[in-house]
Amino acid sequence: DGINQVQCSVAEYPASIASLLDQFDKVEAEELRLTDIISGFIDPDQDDVAPTATHIGSELSEKELDDEDDEDEDKDDTDEDDESDEDVGIDPELAREKFSELRRTYAAMETAIQQYGRYDERTKESIDALSETFKQFRLIPKQFDRLVNDMRQTMDKVRTQERLVMRLCVDQAKMPKKTFVQLFAGNESSDAWIDEALNSGKPYAERVARYEEDLRRCVQKLKIIEEETGLSVERIKTSAVVCLSVKRSTPC
Fold first, then answer.
1. What is the CATH number of the domain that holds 123?
2. Do both 203 and 92 map to the same domain?
3. Is 133 a member of any domain?
4. Is 67's pLDDT higher than 80?
5. For 210-226, how does the pLDDT look when each residue is reduced to its tens digit (9 = 90+)?
6. Which residue range is the domain that position 179 belongs to?
7. How many domains in the chain?
8. Which of 53, 65, 95, 100 would give a disulfide with 144, using CB separation of 3.0 to 4.6 Å?
9. Same domain, 15 and 94
10. In angstroms, how far is CA 165 from the centroid of its own chain?
C-alpha cells in the first residue's frame, strides 16, 4: 500500500511528526481547523481506504505549497457557512485522544533514540509503535505534499554534498570510482574514510590531501543533516525514495 509506505517513512522523520503536533496545538488554540490537518481516522482493526494524495512525489516548491495555502484561505473566506459542516465529521474528543497517543509514542521514540541510539532493537520497536499510531491518521493531501516535499529537500541537500565529494575524489584526485564507493558508502558522515584514503599509500592519496579540507567540510555538513533529522544518510535516502516513488493520485 503506497500511502502506508509513505506514512511509515515519514514516521521515522522526527521533524514531520513534530510539525503535525505543532499544528494540532494551533487547532487547540483555535488558530487552525482540524480539517486543515486531517480528514479523519482509520480504524486499525478494520480494512479502510487511506486518503488519495494529489501531489505525492511531485516537485512542489515551498512557494507552490504556500500558494495552495493562500487559495485555501480565499476559499475559507467565501465558504464560512460550510466550515462548521466540515468539522462535524471529526469528533474533536477522538482527535484529541489520537493526537495525544501520537505525542506519547513520538516522545517514547525520541527517548529511545537518546538512550539507546537509533539502531538499537528497543528504538526500532519505538519507531514501529509510532508508525502504527501515525498510520491511523487520514492526512489531507496538502499535508502529504508538505511532508514529502520536506523529505525531498533533505535528500537534495544530501545529494549535493555527495556529488561534491565524488567530484573531488574521482574527478580531481583520480581515485578509482570503485575504490571511492567502497570507502564512502555507509561512512558518509564519518571522517574515517578520508583518513583511510590519505594513509593508503596509493597514487591518489597525495591528490586527496589537496582537497582534504573541502572533503572534511562536506562530511561535516552531512553529519549536521543527520543530527537535524535524526536519520542516517542512508536512511534519509531510503525514506525519500519510498515517498517520491509514490506517484500523484496513487489509490490505496
1. 1.10.601.10
2. no
3. yes
4. no
5. 999 999 999 999 999 98
6. 155-229
7. 2
8. 53
9. yes
10. 23
